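The methods section describes the discrete structure representation at length, but only in general terms. The central task, working out the structure tokens from the amino acid sequence alone, is never made concrete. Nothing conveys this as quickly as seeing an actual entry. For illustration, here is how one protein appears when written out as sequence plus structure tokens:
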Amino acid sequence: MSDIRFEISAGFLPLLDSALLVAAKEKDFAAAEGIELTLVRETSWANIRDRLAVGHFQVAHMLAPMPIACNLGLTSLAATTVVPMALGLGGNAVTVSNALWRDMAAHGASGDLSPRVTGDALRAVVAERASRNAAPLRLGVVHPHSGHNYELRYWLAACGIDPDRDVEIVILPPPLMADALGSGSLDGFCAGEPWNTAAVLLGHGRIATVKATIWRSSPEKVLGADARWSDANPEALSALLRAIHHAAQWCAGPANHAELAGIMAGPAYVGRPPEWMLPALSGRLGTAVDNVVDVDDFFVPQAKAATFPWKSHALWFYSQMVRWGQVEHSAANAAIARETYRPDLYRSALKPLGAALPGANAKVEGALPAPTPVGSAGASLVLGPDGFFDGGLFDPDDLDGYIAAQRYMPG
């Protein structure tokens, strides 16, 4: 084990997809790179953002769109933040209350997690409630600038539900989601694991659909780094990226899932039973107390370039910020979003390891209907499938056209 050369503090939220950072510390991948890695559990994404801004953290487990929002000035207190690495693909779900599921089932919802079938059923419920002047359904997401907010809105809109008029979307930290569903404060939520599984096991709700079917092989959390620190400490950042890369490989091994679930269950991390972690790791998702569905690639920590910071992911998130009125579209704002994600830093750190490095910085999202070998440096690389459930395509080279087609219309 190497002598300690770098001291790095990282903030995280108690979610399964913090596993790469946790494994980097607990399995000594960070120490092997000469890093004393201190992990600090936080209670909200706003706290993560604020503590990164004031220098308490050098890096953090972050919502994939959050660094873009920080750099666009959409938050009152934020450091310029770069994304040198993603922390996996997928990993979240949409869970609804038992009462809402019963109403959806009456309109054709089934247990196969189909975004189209469940979305059409939800649209029928929304219309029925509106016809009798009932209060709109209240759905929770973890932050305004989150993949959860954007994927929930994308799904709703593609199914004919206006997210701004037909339902109420509210913000709540992920550990409170299951209890809010149980108390009746929420009718549904979109959050990361293990909080969907928690809602099911506690008897509060039903998993209706998952990120891995709304947009396959889609981004979720990233490593956000204070740009001032990363510029001043390139060797420390590269060492951390290598440690996380090794941790991702370890997390991806099925033989390690039981140990990983036990580590994540510890009080310093998620602090909940290991049984809450295992469904997401195995892909055998208990959507209800009496229903288990095998979900391909529910959470992907390492395969399919899962840790590569694609600029097309950054630009898709930016397109949704524009679509839902969070920021005005301009060439300057698009450039800020594009340059937030830094595949150059990823390549520089991992090239010596012979890791699979995509030959491009961006790709057409939704274009791969099946696993597809692509050009890469280092190890061979297979991407996809990566489709949006409604057949949509996002070409980052036609950002203006994509925004114009979506901006003023749900669906």
About this structure: The two ends are 54 Å apart (CA to CA). The longest strand covers residues 6-12. Residues 6-88+220-273+323-353 form a domain with the D-Maltodextrin-Binding Protein; domain 2 fold (CATH 3.40.190.10). The longest helix spans residues 234-252.
